[in-house]
Write a structure and sequence with these properties.
Chain lengths: 81, 768
């Protein structure tokens, strides 16, 4: 199957949410709602990044693999690869 | 929405006598201030403006009656976008007069209509009665038995009525009583007649085809026309009494056919006339109501505003010497300029000689909490307020709720397809806002959804994201990047292994089977795996604990801002620090173990991978020499953390009360300050709002309180807080597992739904 690296998604998403949470607050125009928007951006970045990180790290070192039915295995062998 | 509630000040308004109504009207339109009641000891019946309020209530009564009548006539009341201003007092009398006139007209017309309809009903009944009794008489004359409908008196001949002369020969006069009775009462009526009159009466009855409305009760019921023939006066009286008892409508029975025909004719013309008059009355009524409905809405709003203004005026105190009204209000400091502007406007409108003005005064009372919201944040603010309103100038949790509430919902909901559906629905509600607002639907469920449209939109958007991470779209997975698990690498013995085993497991220990974590979300192969839940349960439970501990730490950290703002720096060391240490040493360490296990243990040492839960439990009982440690030095570190957590509990429990007691006793033990120092209450419930111009910022040099310092009270309060906090830590962390539970339930429900739907569709397809 496709070989996935660990470092690339890590860098990608860290920078993405870093942009949203750290850089974007400086770009918000001044107005009555600035405080709310900045708070929302930071919180969104933290929550979404954390959520993705947990899902990613839980899969980096799997202790066991998926148990598949033999029909599924046959299908995967010939259609996915 | 702001970080903390706004700064408020107490102000005194001096309202000139002539223009106070207009000033209050202006203030009301702006919605700036909160009035305090300056006459608390006065009952509501003794206040100054009681008569005006009574007048407003009278007008409200009339308006209520008017609106009910308008609704009964099915006329729509047009509502305008802008609400009208409260009318000035001189206009009030005009409105009052108009309303009273309308009321009188309406009630008169309604009364007349009632009378006419009653009349019409009587005439209609009379007509029916005449027609039906005609058939009785004529059929009787044909010597036909009418079946069981009337009882035969054995000795009386069933002659026609014209043969009543035969009866007269007997010396008794044959009498007739005819009328209408309700269908349901007929059998009882018949029985009663038979029993009382012992068969000296003959009753014939037949049902009326038309349904007549009974005006007293308003119901439409079937009526029956009856004709009782009897002879003898006494029987006659008994029959009358029975008829009265059963609420029959009696009508005079004509002697012969010609009379009957005459009466029928006259009745017909009368009915026609009545119908005309009734028709015209209804038209007139409708016209009146139509005209009234045009201004009904305006009046309702105006009367409401007037009543509110007089209520507020009742709260003010009347200063006789200066001929002005004094009001005390809480006003946000930032809005003082607007307040002054409103007063000037009001004075101008009221043509006052001396303008009203405002004066700010210092106060020791706790001001009310004001948090300004717009249409987006008001939904979240109301959710937060359902738990309680914060104290004055406390940090408001509402801005964070905008994100965390939908996010936690989405963690539990976690489906891409359903999330998109919800987002689209909410987006539609948001885009058609203005139209929906005008419609003012009365359906409660719809109003609830509509008021929470922004909340639902956020929940939907986050659900799309979590659905992508859970890789769940209508409970199917998307394979965007290609799975990291390869079947080919384990596929050595091909068909034989496949045929002999129904289930086979991919082992990550083999090279090539697992080639890296799926970059975004859960690998799609898990959707097809039989042991899917083993993996997902472990992942989701750990995720719930991680999110829970992070969320709780965030909440504890927010309290620092409160401590710093209220100048209680000692709270940072005596409350915040022990709380944070307790939380992080125990549950923060658990989170650390979760991440460590993920990173340090792989497929190679999967057999030795320890269970985190067992390690966690062993930490508390300080055992665990037998099981292999997660990392070197684990035992020592764990003992250290447990000791810190244990120590922080007594600090949390006793630190603050002892410190406050020590302060009460005189600060550093040497200095005693009494007298001219400004007194400040150090109990944590009240916080002085007066501008604090303290000279000493040092922590230990707080002023001595004049008040009683109740050590027992503070200690009790603090011990409750400690117990609540510690137990809360443990139970709330566990309760975050609901994030796992509900996301599991959602996935299961929709996968079974899919099965049902698919099988249902398939069975239908095969039928066709």
């Amino acid at each position: 199957m496709v070989s996935h690296s660990v470092a690339l998604p890590m860098i990608c998403f860290t920078t993405l949410w870093g942009l949203v949470g750290v850089v974007a607050p400086f770009l918000v125009p001044k107005g009555p709602n600035r405080g709310v928007i900045v708070t929302s951006l930071i919180l969104t970045a933290v929550c979404c990044y954390l959520f993705w990180l947990v899902a990613f790290l839980a899969q980096t070192n799997p202790l066991f693999g998926p148990q598949l039915k033999n029909e599924t295995i046959w299908y995967l062998r010939y259609f996915w690869e | 929405m702001v970080f903390r509630s706004e700064e408020m000040c107490l102000a005194q308004l001096f309202l000139q006598s002539g223009s106070e109504y207009d000033c209050i009207s202006e203030l009301g339109e702006l919605g700036l201030v909160e009035f305090r009641d300056l006459n608390p000891s006065v009952s509501s019946f003794q206040r100054r403006f009681v008569s005006e309020i009574k007048r407003c209530e009278e007008m409200e009564r009339i308006l209520g009656y008017l609106l009910r009548e308008i609704q009964k006539a099915n006329i729509a009341v047009p509502e305008e976008d802008e609400s009208p201003l409260a009318p000035p007092p001189r206009q009030v009398l005009e409105i009052m007069e108009q309303l009273q006139r309308l009321e009188m007209e309406l009630s008169e017309v309604a009364k007349n209509k009632e009378k006419l309809r009653r009349n019409l009903l009587e005439l209609t009944e009379y007509t029916h009665m005449l027609k039906i009794t005609r058939t009785f008489i004529h059929s009787r004359s044909r010597h036909e038995a009418l079946g069981p409908q009337y009882e035969e008196f054995p000795t009386m001949e069933t002659d026609s009525v014209s043969g009543c002369t035969g009866m007269q020969r007997l010396g008794a006069k044959l009498g007739f009583v005819s009328g209408l009775i309700q269908r349901v009462k007929v059998e009882a009526f018949e029985r009663m007649l038979w029993r009382v009159c012992k068969g000296y009466t003959i009753l014939s009855y037949a049902e009326v085809d038309e349904n007549l409305a009974d005006l007293d009760t308003g119901e439409i019921s079937k009526s029956v026309v009856f004709l009782i023939s009897f002879w003898g006066d006494q029987i006659g009286q008994k029959v009358q009494k029975i008829c009265d008892c059963y609420h029959c409508h009696l009508y005079p029975h004509p002697e012969n056919d010609e009379e009957r025909a005459d009466v029928l004719d006259s009745l017909r013309t009368r009915i026609q006339d009545l119908n005309n008059v009734l028709h015209r009355t209804e038209e007139y009524l409708r016209q009146v109501l139509q005209k009234a409905s045009e201004s009904a809405y305006t009046w309702v709003v105006q009367v409401k505003k007037m009543k509110a203004i007089y209520h507020i005026l009742n709260l003010c105190s009347f200063d006789v010497t200066n001929k002005c009204l004094i009001a005390e209000v809480w006003c946000p400091v930032s809005d003082l300029a607007n307040l002054r502007g409103a007063l000037e406007e009001g004075s101008r409108k009221g043509d006052a000689t001396v303008p009203s003005f405002v004066n700010r005064i210092p106060s020791n009372d706790t001001p009310p909490t004001l948090l300004r919201t717009n249409k987006f944040t008001s939904g979240f603010q109301s959710i937060v307020e359902a738990y309680g309103v914060g104290d004055y100038r406390e940090v408001s949790p509402a801005p964070y709720t905008i994100i965390t509430f939908p996010f936690l919902f989405a963690v539990m909901f976690g489906d891409l397809g359903h999330g998109m559906v919800i987002s689209l629905f909410a987006l539609w509600m948001v885009l058609t806002e203005k139209k929906q607002n005008k419609k003012r639907s009365s359906n409660e469920i719809w109003t609830t959804f509509f008021n929470g449209r922004y909340i639902i939109l956020m929940m939907g958007l986050f659900s799309v994201y979590t659905g992508l991470v859970y890789n769940d779209c209508f409970s199917k997975s998307l394979n965007i990047f290609g799975s990291g698990w390869s079947v080919k690498a384990m596929f050595t013995n091909q068909n034989k292994t496949l045929q002999t085993n129904a289930l086979l497991t991919l082992d990550p220990n083999f090279s090539g089977v697992f080639s890296g974590p799926y970059p975004f979300g859960i690998d799609p192969i898990w959707n097809m795996a039989v042991n899917r839940l083993s993996f997902l349960n472990s992942y989701k439970m750990k995720m719930s604990v991680v999110i829970g501990v992070v969320h709780m730490s965030f909440g504890v950290v927010l309290s620092v801002f409160n401590h710093l703002h209220f100048r209680q720096k000692f709270n940072v060391f005596l409350l915040f620090l022990p709380e944070l240490l307790f939380l992080l040493c125990l549950f923060g360490y658990l989170v650390f173990m979760i991440f460590y296990k993920w990173l340090a243990f792989g497929a190679r040492d999967s057999s030795q991978a320890p269970s985190i839960l067992i390690h966690f439990i062993n930490m508390f009982v300080m055992q665990g020499k037998d099981i292999t440690p997660l990392y070197p030095g684990q035992m020592g570190l764990q003992i250290f953390l447990v000791i810190i957590a244990m120590l922080s509990v007594p600090v949390l429990l006793l630190g603050k009360p002892l410190y406050l007691y020590w302060l009460y006793r005189g600060g550093k033990g040497l200095r005693r300050r009494r007298g001219y120092e400004r007194v400040r209450r150090v109990s944590e419930d009240d916080n002085s709002t007066a501008p604090s111009y303290e000279d000493d910022e040092e922590e230990g040099v707080d002023e001595v309180t004049n008040r009683e310092f109740d050590f027992a009270d503070v200690l009790l309060h603090q011990s409750i807080h400690t117990i609540e906090y510690c137990l809360g830590c443990i139970s709330n962390t566990a309760s975050y597992l609901r994030l796992w539970a509900l996301s599991l339930a959602h996935a299961r429900k929709f996968s079974t739904n899919n099965q049902f739907t698919l099988s249902f569709l398939c069975s239908n397809a095969t039928l066709c």
